[in-house]
Amino acid sequence: MTPGRRSSTFTRLLRHGFTDPSAAERLLDSPELATVRNDPVLLEALGATADPDLALHGLVRLLEAQPTPTAHRELLDTLVAAKPLRDRLLGILGASTALADHLARHPTDWHALVTYEPHDLHPGVTEFEQGLAEAADPVTLRVAYRRCLLSIAARDVCGTTDVAETAAELADLATATLRTALALAEEAAPEDAAACRVAVIAMGKCGGHELNYVSDVDVIFVAEPAEDTPEPQALRSATKLASHLMRICSETTVEGSIWPVDANLRPEGRNGPLVRTLSSHLAYYQRWAKTWEFQALLKARPVAGDPALGQAYLDALQPLVWQAAERENFVPDVQKMRRRVVENIPAAEIDRELKLGPGGLRDVEFAVQLLQLVHGRTDPALRSGTTLDALRALAAGGYVGREDAARLNEAYRFLRLLEHRIQLYRLRRTHLVPEAEADLRRLGRSLGLRTDPVTGLTREWKRHTTVVRRLHEKLFYRPLLDAVAQLAPGEARLSAEAARERLIALGYADPAAALRHLEALASGVSRKAAIQRTLLPVLLGWFADSADPDAGLLNFRKVSDALGKTPWYLRLLRDEGAAAENLARVLSAGRLAPDLLMRAPEAVALLGDGDGGGLAPRQQAALEQEVLAAVGRAENAAQGVTAARGVRRRELFRTAAADIVGSYGTETHPAEADQGALVDRVGAAVSDLTKATLAGTLRAVVREGWGDTLPTRFAVIGMGRFGGHELGYGSDADVLFVHEPREGVAEQEASAAANRVVAEMRRLLQLPSADPPLLIDADLRPEGKSGPLVRTLKSYEAYYRRWSLVWESQALLRAEPVAGDADLGRRFIELIDPLRYPAKGLGEDAVREIRRLKARMESERLPRGADPKLHTKLGPGGLSDVEWTVQLLQLRHAHREPGLRTTRTREALAAARAAGLLSAEDTEILDEAWVLASRVRNAVMLVRGRAGDTFPTEPRELAAVGRYLGYGAGHVGDMLDAYRRTARRARTVVEDLFYAD
């Protein structure tokens, strides 16, 4: 070979797509290709394959394997003379090493690619059965199966069939294979075959006539006794036949395996019997089946065995499939199953997962199946097991927009074709896009991307997954808007009844009202309506993910009516990624947050990503500074307190919104896993806000009545949950008021001023207004309701020295200055420290008194008719149990354990553990119970808009509490069981620690 010729050939090979021209030259110079090495047709045909290097290597192997010189010459002559064979054979060799290996082992099987008759272009089950007819055992069945597979792959890579036709042919080949395998099993056990009638029902992709090259073939077996055969004996025989069929297809032999036969979609899964009678199947689906099992039956298709029994199976079960959408929580169940699939994908693979990942094949399939189940009840045209046929029918019926259906069809075909080509290479079951550049290059070329195959493939793949991600949710909701907005004349659209069906399936209790809201929001040609039509498909999905979609949609309409003409509102929702989802979560989670928002809708700006402060809680100093500045600008005390209450309302909304978003999670941020952190954030935020509100109110009252200086020093002491930084949304502010006359001021004058301040503060904070009231509770003061509202520091000192009871020492454990004169507050704390942290601990008489008071409170204060086991405050294992136990430890041991000198329950628990007073296990149990009870109380307030210590009884409210606590639709029973279990464990610890001597 001259250098010049080598250079010319080398360049020519590069131009034809070879990546290793040197190796290709050596192969072309091999004796096997001696007669055709210079044939330009051959080189052109090799260059047209997905991987010319691979195709050339496979061709040389095939030629080397020919049994005789005559066979060798026949192959070469046919290859050069017959373009159909040349394209088919080289196309396969360039796309599949597995089929190249098969041809090398069975070198005469290339003849299967020669015929080009009309029936060969689109074979069906009959043709494939003929191709498998000579199989006498599992080994020869595999050889015959691969021979048939050669013809399917050849039509695929040459473009003779499209991806849907290829998938259908693969399903037909699987059908023929199952029939042949059953015949082999029956031939091996004629007595078993005579004892029963067996039908094989294909499920999944095989049942849907859309199989992959390498996939589990999902089946269900149904059997009936033959005449005069007892049912138990017939089922045993049928089980033997079914098991043998599965082994014939699945077991590895010298020729490999065909594919696994998977029967786990049967009733009870792998724990249930492999074979059942028809009546047994029917009984299971009528009584026990879950929603996903009816979804799976969409694709059920009899493929082998007794055809009459297979049809009877379909006739019996299909009506149940079309009733599935009437089941409670139908849509959430289906969506939850989809989320669970995504969550189980390893993080390292999710971006390469073609089938199960976001924007993948399963997103299309789930969306289509969901719509089929909702509308197939009344429209038989939708009852196809094939995804693309069903999508076409949905578009034709107006259940999906035609443009959306066309884009989804294109994306699904591309993704399926890419999946086929990935699997064809080694005939291995995988749905991962490879990472190696050589693999991506081969795949890109196989899809016709020749200029820059790697970049082109990546771009097209990402484009199509993006389309699917955007459309698979929109697919469900967009037609609802088209049905009411009527903006596309001539387009088929949902009927009123179909729209009603869809809304009911989504969980709307009042579909007529929902359609009215949608019409009001989406109709017209204004910019507002156009933006809302874009937003609503996504918002409707988030509303459907809540316990009360009706409330979410109604509240969105109210907000939009209030803010729709303000440019920043629609821009916020359109442009800031988190804002729309945050708003949807907040509007559908209960009454409190929407009520707070409706009083000042501009607070919706807090939900965005920008610089408006977002949902992060503000520091107390900043809050107090804002409140005091607003009070300073007010003309009088009433206006000042109104301003302070306005800040409080806005910040309560911020806190509630952050709590809801953190509890629900978003598409980009999962729900907060640390429940204690959520409780602590709410407690700190609401407590800080209450302090700032009291500080502003105090300033407003003093300034109006006395100018800059009150005749007496005045301080507010937080008590209970307020002092412990543990306020919930519905908590009153427990306080004590203390004052100290200024020098030269008579005590009577000082006392009168202090009482006026308290009275005016309480009045102004409770005045009816658009802002929620702040109730001040001073019942923990000395002498309770019978004692004076305000005392001097000396009066407190005299009372505590002479009259103080043990319960008052216990109550003072939570005392902390929250507003007013800081020095007076500090001196009050110095006064009470010896009472709440007694130098010698607590005497036995005092311990007995605390236990007696606790027992009395449990028996007398629990509301009549309340279930004690579900009462979060006074029930066994509730807040009172945990807090009294912790406080008893503080009273007994805080004098020598400084860590216990805290007003916060969780901090005191941790300090008790650190001091060795509690075991790690007991600490965890008490902490978990306290956090859960606090979360439930917060949830009840968020959901109902009013405080409560027990779970709601109204189903939607109870479901909303469950959703806030992380329980999906249909799992409120699990929530209640978990609460009882947690509380029961805590009560056991309390009895050991609080009541034991």
Overall geometry: elongated
What portion of residues is helical?
Answer: 55-70%
Number of strands: 10
Distance between the termini: 103 Å
Category from helices, strands and their pairing = mainly alpha
What integer is the average pLDDT?
A: 91
> Which sheet architecture does the biggest sheet show?
5 strands, mixed
- What percent of residues are in strands? 5-15%
Gyration radius, in Å: 38 Å
Stretches with pLDDT under 50, minimum 5 residues: 1-5
Tally of alpha and pi helices? 44
How would you explain this protein's 3D organization?
This protein is mainly alpha-helical. 62% of the residues lie in helices and 5% in strands. It has 44 helices and ten strands. Strands 1, 2, 3, 4 and 5 form a five-stranded mixed sheet that branches. Strands 6, 7, 8, 9 and 10 form a five-stranded mixed sheet that branches. Helix 2 (21-28) runs parallel beside helix 4 and helix 22 packs across helix 23. The longest helix has 33 residues, at 453-485. The radius of gyration is 38 Å and the shape is elongated. Mean pLDDT is 91; it is low at 1-5.
Topology of helices and strands:
Elements: H1 3-15, H2 21-28, H3 40-47, H4 52-65, H5 69-81, H6 83-93, H7 97-105, H8 118-121, H9 125-131, H10 138-158, H11 163-188, H12 190-195, E1 196-202, H13 204-207, E2 217-225, H14 231-250, E3 261-262, E4 275-276, H15 278-287, H16 291-297, E5 301-305, H17 307-321, H18 330-343, H19 361-375, H20 387-396, H21 402-426, H22 437-446, H23 453-485, H24 496-505, H25 511-522, H26 527-544, H27 549-563, H28 567-575, H29 577-588, H30 592-599, H31 620-633, H32 637-664, H33 675-706, E6 712-718, H34 720-723, E7 733-741, H35 747-766, E8 776-777, E9 790-792, H36 793-802, H37 806-812, E10 816-820, H38 822-836, H39 844-860, H40 879-893, H41 905-914, H42 920-944, H43 955-964, H44 972-995
Parallel strand pairs: 2-3, 2-4, 7-8, 7-9
Antiparallel strand pairs: 1-2, 1-5, 6-7, 6-10
Helix pairs in contact: 1-2, 2-4, 4-6, 4-7, 5-6, 6-10, 9-11, 10-11, 11-14, 15-17, 18-19, 19-20, 19-23, 20-21, 21-23, 22-23, 23-25, 23-26, 24-25, 25-27, 26-27, 26-29, 27-29, 28-29, 29-32, 30-32, 31-32, 31-33, 32-33, 33-35, 33-42, 37-38, 40-41, 40-44, 41-42, 42-43, 42-44
